[in-house]
Amino acid sequence: MARRLAALIVLVASFLAGPAACQGASICFSGWLRPLNPLLCPRGSRMNRLPRQRGASPSGFGLSYGYYNNRRSSSYCPRAEAIVRDAVRKAVAANPGVGAGLIRLFFHDCFVRGCDASVLLTATNSGNADVEREGPPNKNSLRGFEVIDAAKSALESACPRTVSCADIVAFAARDASFFLSRGRINVRAPGGRLDGRESFANETDQLPGPFSNVTELQASFAAKGLSSDDMVTLSGAHTVGRARCLFFSSRFAEMDPALAAKLRAQCNGDDNTFANQDDVTPDVLDRQYYRNVVDRKVLFGSDAVLGNATETVAQVRENANRVGAWERKFELAMEKMGRIEVKTRAGRDAEIRKVCSVVNS
Ligand code: HEM
């Protein structure tokens, strides 16, 4: 009887959880589950094991500014950054949402196996097909791949096998931030990353989820050597782009009533409908996110907690009120994120891919 009841609870919970929220006994995407579903995440599963080990601040050893401009180096490709910028400019002009996608792609790349373009792979060295792109945080959600591919193909014509996909992802996020902020955000982006040769869906459980609490958010960033301030600063990226109703429809009651009513109508009971993350300036990368946190106009629980937790509320208020403060912090935090666990020495696990979705044969 008890076993039947447990099975029923798991069935109901997994139905509510949506696709593949939990994989196996030891990997659990708890921050990606609706509040009811912690039932599915046994204590001791990877995401629930807190506090995580704090990583050292990312050194980015081996990266340098203007990496492709050195005439004496075999990596010389003076148009490299301009080629990426052109591809991003075109894509963002056609659809600003793709710019948001590129910023997120960079975050999801760097948090899993470091900034090594593992997030782009569909074919890996080991033959594993269950790649990061298939992981619950990424599947049917990440976008911007075609912009990376367009830049890569132009770069292969200009300088074959010279510019890594990992650097393209970093430059593209830098450029998307520039265009979406109307030129107000200039991230410095050193180059020299190599591309990884492996990618595993289950490792995307390192990405914090929309239901994560502040301790979980801080722990996931600390594990990558990023501070709580970095976490609050980078969350400001939720002032652009979109999100599925699945991740916020359980918290309409906690939102500003007018916004909740608008979103409820927009979602209309369909979990997979998308809504803008920032209802005020949806396509501009600006500090409006922090005003939204204060005004209860953010979508995720993980956004709202920043305005409630004692460790983060002061920074939220400062970012909301002080002109220009957040933009400078965002530039530095993005650069820091781009230094996470980079591979800079060619070898069995690092190369410059010819095609960004496939390891070299
Ligand atoms: C702090 C923890 C974070 C959580 C829990 C989180 C969670 C999410 C979720 C659930 C979505 C919507 C996905 C969907 O519905 O398909 C999203 C979208 C997005 N996130 Fe985050 N995120 C976090 C941090 C970040 C960071 C650090 C960045 C970049 C610096 C970022 C940039 C974005 C962007 C730009 C979008 C919109 C993407 C698009 O429109 O394609 N997020 N995030």
UniProtKB/TrEMBL annotation:
Keywords: Calcium, Disulfide bond, Glycoprotein, Heme, Hydrogen peroxide, Iron, Metal-binding, Oxidoreductase, Peroxidase, Secreted, Signal. The gene is ga29113. Residues 1-22 form the signal peptide. This is Peroxidase. Heme b binds at residue 238. Its main location: secreted. One of its GO terms (biological process) is response to oxidative stress. PROSITE patterns: PEROXIDASE_1 (PS00435), PEROXIDASE_2 (PS00436), PEROXIDASE_4 (PS50873). InterPro entries: Haem_peroxidase, Haem_peroxidase_sf, Peroxidase_pln, Peroxidases_AS, Peroxidases_heam-ligand_BS, Secretory_peroxidase.
